[in-house]
Specification:
Elements lengths: L7 H121 L1
Length: about 130
């Protein structure tokens, strides 16, 4: 046999071996592809779960932000109410001061009238004597 010559039966055997090897490699590649597909699907499921968890967190933050805004508005309204009450209290104190001042003036007038009446009585006593 000359160099490089392969007998047809031997060539057939090599060809069948090559075919079997190719089929085994193809099967292995299909298995690997299926494995990769399953991993990708699992990764998508996990990604979706993370996305849902992030959305839940975002909604929770939004609710907290809304609650904070509600509390801020309520605090502002309470501050305004307290300021209004403070002004009302100041006005009440001023009204009390004015009322007391008026009462004092009336008391002075009454005292002056009593003094005048005493003086008149004393003069009448002197005139009768």
């Amino acid at each position: 046999m000359p160099n490089g010559y392969i007998h047809p039966e031997q060539r057939l055997t090599q060809s069948e071996g090559t075919r079997e090897k190719a089929q085994d490699e193809a099967e292995s590649a299909r298995n690997e592809a299926e494995h990769c597909r399953r991993l990708a699907e699992e990764a998508r499921v996990i990604r979706d779960q993370h996305r849902e968890a992030l959305e839940t967190l975002r909604e929770g933050r939004e609710r907290l932000r809304d609650a904070g805004e509600t509390a801020r508005v309520a605090g502002e309204e309470a501050r305004i109410a307290a300021e209004t009450a403070r002004h009302a209290a100041i006005q009440a104190v001023h009204a009390s001061v004015a009322s007391l001042h008026t009462a004092l003036e009336h008391m002075k007038v009454v005292e002056e009238m009593r003094r005048i009446l005493r003086d008149v009585r004393d003069i009448n006593k002197l005139d009768s004597n």
